[in-house]
Specification:
This protein has about 500 residues and is an alpha/beta fold. It is about 35% helix and about 20% strand. It is built from 15 helices and 20 strands. The chain has a 5-stranded mixed beta sheet with strand order 1-3-2-4-5, sandwiched between helices. Strand 19 and strand 20 form a beta hairpin. Helix 3 packs across helix 5 and helix 10 packs across helix 12. The radius of gyration is 29 Å and the shape is globular.
Length: about 500
Amino acid sequence: MILKLNISKVLVLLLWLRTCLARDKNVLKMTDSNFHKQITFHKDIMVMFFIPWSGLCQRIRPQYAAAADILKERNLPVAFGKIDCSRAGRSTCASKNLPTLPVLYFYHNGQFVKEYTGARDSLNIVKFMRVQVLPSPLELKNIDELKRFLNRQDDVVVAGFFEEDTRLKRMFFKVAEEMKESVIFVYSSCEKLLIKQGVMDGIVLFRPRCLHNKYEDERILFTGRTVIGEIKNFIIKGYHGLVGHRVPTNRYNFANPLVVVYYTVDYHKGGKEINYWRNRVIKVAHKYKNDVKFAISAVDDFEAEVADVTENISTMKPVVILRDLESKKYFMTEEFSNEALDAFVRDFLDQKLTPYIKSKTFLQHDNDGAVLIAHAQNFEHLVLNSTKDILLNLYAVWSGGSQKFALVLREVADLLRDDNVNVVKMDTTENEVPAMFAGKPLPNVYFLNKKKKKHPILYDGQPNVEQVIKFVAKMATNELNDFDRDGSYKLDKDEL
């Protein structure tokens, strides 16, 4: 039985390898013996360092191969190579002290130039390689060149049309230089082309055919002031349209309130689900374009964000999370449909939704001795609205340091039982960290003065009872009963 199972696994692996080899037809196979020769022979080459059994490598390889196919079809003078760090390329990989695989390196004239750190899909890899070998902006000299160029693009193109040298043209070139690795820029001064476009001194954003829909213009003219900031904002807004494709490298381009629709992308199919779901979301997004922004994201790119609200990630239906201006989250519990999404957004705007907070609930008697246990649902009541000073321990159960601090704080809480100070702890692995601590180091201990709860003070001393007491004694609103402001123990009159 075990033998049959192993044979079936081998057959599946062989079939997968056969498929991958077919897809890699425009990717050079590199080894220790030919690596240097290949990077010097090809003026510009991208090399993927990988190990075949890695799930991440398997997911990226089809995208990498697709990028090689696209640039081969467009006759761009670049090459793509791959080297197996587990076998024939082991020595080469070892000599480069590579981080976690896969790694994509770009070489020019045999010399390493930079690591590719963008999104690992064919579209972004193509954009990166295009920038390395073509000028930005690229000049188009006639009507046919523009037509052919736009027809073969699957991404937004920003074009500058200038009859003569103007301030707008100079600003356009500066923006093109700054944004060249994320946006395609072209320009032209051809009189016939400018007349046909109806633009003699202007900037036009063209959406690719794959993003065309009845709710958005396919061509947008820049009408703002001739300053770099307004040109860049015009491009960012137009680039994403009603429903932008949100990836780790552009996540900060999307402002709240924001609805993000997450779904599983099969990278072996080239990510075709991107537009399948986007077209459905657009039908809802156009109704609320003045109130809420919309975006789509691959679950693989934002696993932590999705895991915060649900562990049941369907491979068929999207997950929807909405963030308001204060970054509070709202989770759509209904199965995805246009009608459900519409009702979800409408209820948010009508203030009928309750924010989602990851929280583990404890009973009152579950307090750890004199240490009060907080969870996300009672944090505001127990900490922020308390009339006492708070010594707060935000900890993680997996942290050895947290466990050591827990024993110290339990003793501190006993010493402060009769004071106007509460010692509180909250498990950050079971509960959502409050927004006021976002971006701050965790796990850690903070002091919150009862009059200044929104300005926590970080304790940076040792996990030592004496040191913690000194810290609290100094920070406390009222002097402690048994300790002076220096944290020294007060002697009773009888002890003098």
